[in-house]
């Protein structure tokens, strides 16, 4: 899987202000900014992203996904 394919899957299911991906095709690191994360704990945010990937996680197309998730307000003050 390419970064573009992974980004498209996430963006199709979750409105995002920013998605940044790094990885080798199976192991990924993502930074995701979405208003849908407002009021949600980290585990709930991650579950939302995993739900967006659905079967891709179950079939091992995406073997590992480490992520940082932010609301737009959190992202505005996060050094990057």
Structural summary, described in words:
The chain is an alpha+beta fold and 80 residues long. The chain has one domain (3-77): GMP Synthetase, Chain A, domain 3. 41% of the residues lie in helices and 25% in strands. The protein has four helices and three strands, in the order αββααβα. Strands 1-2-3 form a three-stranded mixed beta sheet. Strand 1 and strand 2 form a beta hairpin. Helix 1 (3-13) crosses helix 2 (42-53). It is globular. It starts with a helix and ends with a helix. The model has no long low-confidence stretch (mean pLDDT 92).
| Biggest sheet record | 3 strands, mixed
Radius of gyration: 12 Å
Strand content: 25-35%
The first-to-last residue Cα distance is: 26 Å
Organism: Rhodoferax sediminis
Family: Belongs to the BolA/IbaG family.
Protein name: BolA family transcriptional regulator
InterPro entries: BolA, BolA-like_sf, BolA/IbaG_stress_morph_reg
């Amino acid at each position: 899987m390419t970064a573009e394919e992974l980004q498209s899957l996430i963006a199709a299911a979750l409105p995002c202000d920013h998605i940044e991906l790094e990885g080798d095709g199976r192991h990924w690191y993502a930074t995701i900014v979405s208003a849908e994360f407002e009021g949600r704990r980290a585990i709930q945010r991650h579950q939302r992203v995993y739900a967006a990937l659905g079967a891709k996680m179950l079939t091992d197309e995406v073997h590992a996904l480490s992520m940082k998730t932010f609301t737009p307000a959190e992202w505005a003050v996060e050094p990057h």
